[in-house]
Amino acid sequence: MNNKVKHWLSKNVVVVVLIVLCMAFGMANKIFFTSKNLINLTSQMSINALLATGLTYVIILGGIDISVGSVAALSGIVSAVAGLQFPDMSVFTAIIILVMSGIVIGGACGAINGLMITKFNVVPMITTLAMMTIARGLSYVVTGGQPVYGLANNFAWLGAGRIIKPASEPNGMIPVLTIFTAVIVFFMHMLLSKTVFGRHVYAVGSNRTVAHLSGIHVNKVVLVSYILCGITAGLGGICIASKLQNGQPSAGDGYEMYAIAATVLGGTSLIGGSGSVGRAMFGCAIIAVINNGMNLMQISSYWQKVVIGSIILFAVILDMSQKKNTK
């Protein structure tokens, strides 16, 4: 029985940590477990969840993408600039502008990353470091370093809108951002866990040589995975722009570290070959709970960065120890 418990705990450390954190913050501040705060938590973790969803594919391949925060900023800027052309836009028009900006800009950046890695054999860290610098630079070039504001109110519906409006909550209960994120996460989860392409991602991450000999087009799998990572980063960026109702060239700064931390904390191995979108969401939830709980306790945001950095270190150590135990 003890062995079974130990085995379950070793496989579900992230779940246990999440429960412990929730209980600790709940006891420290009674506001934590209120329905309003818990709903806000889902909105607060949404951007990180979008970025971590695409990163899961890349990290399973044994790669990395540190450009997702900058790609998010560039996508948000493009969506805001496009939105200025429609001063009286409807909600439908706003959604089309936002989503298309995220897909096109994010997909293009992801495709460049993928091509550099597959065609020119550039190391993923160097490729995405270059893209991080280029995308951030373009964000400042396009805006002149100034926010893009003056957008129609409907531009904010995707990022700040809410649905289901009872008398007690005239502004709405459920964030549209939460629903949008859930749809994207579900799609990416099903693609990875239930399709041939998803099985190919795991195969390539486990052993590229064996995958190639098995008839898998390794470069195609890597390229598509980086495109997907770029698209989810782009969608995260347009959600930031919509939530703020403006385009900020500094948006998404440092978000790549939160996304990587969430992905690895959720059990996606940095060595490659294992992980899942669903478990990455537990990592996102842990980071959101820590930030939310520390805010409620009025702990400095500087200390929050220290804690997140420690989490990244803990997640890597845990990943390495689990790999040693399986040898």
Describe this structure in words.
By secondary structure, the chain is mostly helical. Strands 1-2 form a two-stranded antiparallel sheet. The two termini are 24 Å apart. It contains 15 helices and two strands. Helices cover 73% and strands 1% of the residues. The model has no long low-confidence stretch (mean pLDDT 92). The chain has a domain of 222 residues.
Can I get a quick summary?
About 75% of the residues lie in helices and about 0% in strands.
The percent range for strand residues is: under 5%
User: Using only CA atoms, what is the Rg?
Assistant: 20 Å
Number of helical stretches of at least 4 residues: 15
User: What is the spatial order of strands in the main beta sheet?
Assistant: 1-2
pLDDT averaged residue by residue: 92
Terminal Cα span: 24 Å
Comma- or semicolon-separated keywords:
single chain, globular, two-stranded antiparallel sheet, mainly alpha
How are the elements arranged and paired?
Layout: H1 2-11, H2 13-28, H3 35-44, H4 46-60, H5 68-83, H6 91-119, H7 124-143, H8 157-160, E1 162-163, E2 174-175, H9 176-194, H10 196-206, H11 208-213, H12 218-244, H13 255-265, H14 277-296, H15 301-326
Antiparallel strand pairs: 1-2
Helix pairs in contact: 2-14, 4-9, 4-12, 4-13, 4-14, 5-6, 5-7, 5-12, 6-7, 6-12, 9-10, 10-12, 13-14, 13-15, 14-15
